[in-house]
Design brief:
elongated, six-stranded antiparallel β-barrel, 48% strand, 2 helices
Amino acid sequence: MKKIIDQNGRLFGKISVIDVLFLLVVAAVCAAFYVKFNVLDVTRKTVDTVPVTYKITIYGVRDYTVKSLAVGDLIYDKDYSGEQPVGKITDISVQDAVRAVEKTDGTIVSGPVEGCYDVTLTLSAQAIRSSGRTLVNRTYEVNVNSERVFNTKYATFSATITGVSS
């Protein structure tokens, strides 16, 4: 009976083990290329965007911040690494700021905050809607009740996203 590997390291005395390993690697690379270019579906590179409207509320700001906001201003997120705006102001609503205050007897009542305002900005943007997520600029996720630091050309402020609609 013949040995499988002889003293020279050849299989059945005819082919080298290294040659077999090389052929297996070449076959694996060829199979990978075949799968990549002939079997896998091509993913879409274009994504349809839809217009989206969302509201952010700034709580307890002074009048100079209110005066620095205007319809048509672009809004940016201070922490967002992209240079693209995350929305454009389409409406501004200003109310006197009201906060919960505890009285000396322990009851809690709502009371006005002198010289401060709550501002609700309505923003419009183009977004991708997928699996219940809204992504502005393909990467900036808009979530209700998330607090972020926004800025315009003239103001920087902390605001809470209070609503998202299409």
